[in-house]
Structures are given as structure tokens and as C-alpha cells.
Amino acid sequence: MLRREAQLPARLLGLGMPLTVAAGLGAGVALLPGLSVAEAALLAAILAPTDATLGQAVVSDPAVPVRVRQTLNVESGLNDGIASPLVTVFLAVAAAEIETGDPGTWTSFALEQIGYGLLIGAAAGLVGGRLIDYCASRNWMTGTFRQLSTLALALAAFGFAVAAGGNGFVAAFTAGVAFGVVAREHCPHIEDLSEDEGQLLALLTFLFFGLVVAGPLLDDIGWRVLAYAVLSLTLVRAVPVAVSLAGAKLRPATIALIGWFGPRGLASIAFALMVLEEADLAGGDTILLAVTCTVLLSVFAHGATALPATRAYARRFAAVSARREEPMPEEMPATEFPLRVTHRLRLLAGRRAANGTPSG
Predict the structure, then answer these.
(1) Phi, psi dihedral angles at 35 (to 5 degrees)
(2) What share of the chain has pLDDT > 70, as a percent?
(3) 119 domain residue, yes or no
(4) Rounded to two decimals, what is the model's pTM?
């Protein structure tokens, strides 16, 4: 399905995301003089991935064209995995700048983080997927344990990669891709668990982030950090999105909607904490402060505007569509990727159909 609908997400991920990192680097150099160029690039990479948790009103609202919703859905689902190697490389470069020892040490660190993460993640996903498929096909494993075993694969990939000196995020992401290749028919059975547990863990993460990290740092936020956070959520995101979608013939309102709904959340929090754990950077405190301020602003700004902005866009789009005879690019047929709500409705409809009950 992704290959069939890859045009717009590929633009955002292949062009928009690198431009976002470059724009974030420029903003960091201009507004945060305490950061080196490498540290500014690291901060930009940390804040490049988006988080669909704060924009669920967009990706789940049927009034928004499917093609637009799935573009945001795919972008937020893939950009954190793509950003992880960038964060690792920029971290190695920034750390090498302040080390008096051999810079090759940090080069080896970056290669090991990415290499071990890819290898261990692929092995965990392929072997684990084959095992689950083998056991499930022989009815040795119930549906509940298929779900729990898949969750265990993600944790195992993360844990083994970290123990070997690799990047756990790269490993978990790669394990998911590998699992989907060899055990694709089992993916629908694990969606409910991953969505439910993911939602719970996301809420807990935001809770502890506010309690432990954000709360104590509020007094340290200055105008430079605040200005960087505002730029990160607006021009640093919106301009690259507009450039990457040029030529796609989308309406300006659609480009504005996609450009605005680039909330920052879980991935940025995780990357920032990883940076603090791995290296004692000279600008580490500034990086954490900028990430904290950006995520806090995003939580309130995107959380508060998700529903009203979506409704306003849907009304405007419907009015324009009614005046046109030919369909707009946003209305082109697109496959709707499974979300938690739609997946449950399909399961419920299937159960009712099997029982002879009307699905309405």
C-alpha cells in the first residue's frame, strides 16, 4: 500500500526532511551562539521527526481527504526511524569536536551504533517473525501471545543492540520492517496491542517528561530558546514542506495544513535523553532546553488547534470541491492505511458478518 501511495510521503521524507534539518541548523547557528555547528545540526536532527499523537484529529478525521491524512500518517510513522542515524552521526561529530583523544573513536561509535542496530534489528525481526509464523500456523500460539511475542521482539532488538554497542532505536525500527516482510499476515493481529500500549506509554512519557524534565527547566528558558522553538514549529517546518510539495498541484490550504501539523513529541524527547546519556557535550544543556521548549509549545499549540483547524480545512475544501467539476489532486483515489479506530471497525464488521448480524 505504501508503494502505491508513496508520492507525497516520499516528497516530505526525501526532500522536506533534509531541508528541515538544514533550516533548523541555520536557525540554531543564528539564535543559539553557545552551540557549535555540529551541535546545532544535532539539535535540528532531534527536532526533525514529527509525532502524530498530537495530530490524531487530522489523521483520523474522515472529512479530510484520505490522501492528505495518509501523507501525514506515513511521514510521522517513518521519519523518526530515518532521523535516528542522523542523530547518531551528528552526536559523534559533536562529541569528537570536544574530545582531546582520537576522533576515530567517535567515528567508530557512529558506525557501531548504526551497523549493530541494523544487523541486530534485522536478525531479531527476521528470526522472530519466522518463529511466530511457524508457531501460529501450527496453533501452538494464541492470538494474545502473538501480540505479546511481537512486543517482546521489539524490546529484545532494542536490548541486544544496546548491549552490543548499537542504537536501540535503529534496531527496533529495523526489526519492525523485517517482521513485516516475513510475517506480514500477523501484523493485523498486533495493531490493537501496539496502538493501545503505545498510547498508554506515550501518555506516561509526556507525564514524566513534564514532571522530571520540563518543570525544572521552565525558569531557564530565555528569549533565544523561545524564538528557536517558535521557528522550529513554524518556518523551519512550513517552508521545507512547501518546497517539497511544489509541483504536486495541491491547494495552498492543503500545503498549509501539512506544514502546520508537524508536532514534536516522543521521538524528540527520546533522542534528547539519548544525547545526554551518551556524551557530555558543551552545548548539551542548551540542546535539552531547546528540545524541552519546542515540545512544550507543540503539545499546547498542536493539541489546541488540531480539531478546529481540521474542521476549518474540511469546510473550505468541501466548498471548493463542490464548485469544481474535475477532482482535485487531494481527491485522487488512495488506500486508507489501517489506524486503530478504522481497524477496530473493520474487525467488528467482520465479526458481525460472521455472526449474520447487520454491520450498521
Answers:
(1) -95, 140
(2) 87
(3) no
(4) 0.79
